[in-house]
Amino acid sequence: MGAGDEPAAEHAQPRLTRPACLSTSSVSEHLQRDRSDRRRFERTSVSTPAVHTPAQGTGATSGPRASRRPSPRLSLHSPPALRRIPPGVWFVAPFIVLYLVFLLTPIALGLVTSFFNTSLAGGTGDFVGLGNYRELLADDAVASSAANTLRFTLYSTPLLIVVALVMALLTHRNMPARWLFRLAYFMPFLVPVTVVTMIWTWLLGTDFGLINGMLDGIGLGPVNWLGEPAAAMTSVVMVTVWWTVGFNYLLYLAALQGIPEELYEASSIDGANAWQQLFRITLPLLRRTTGLILVLQLIASLKVFDQIYLLTSGGPNFSTRPILEYIYDVGFTGLRIGYSSAISYAFFLVILVIALIQLRLFSRKEGSA
Question: How many Cβ atoms are within 10 Å of 291's Cβ, its own excluded?
Answer without folding.
Answer: 17
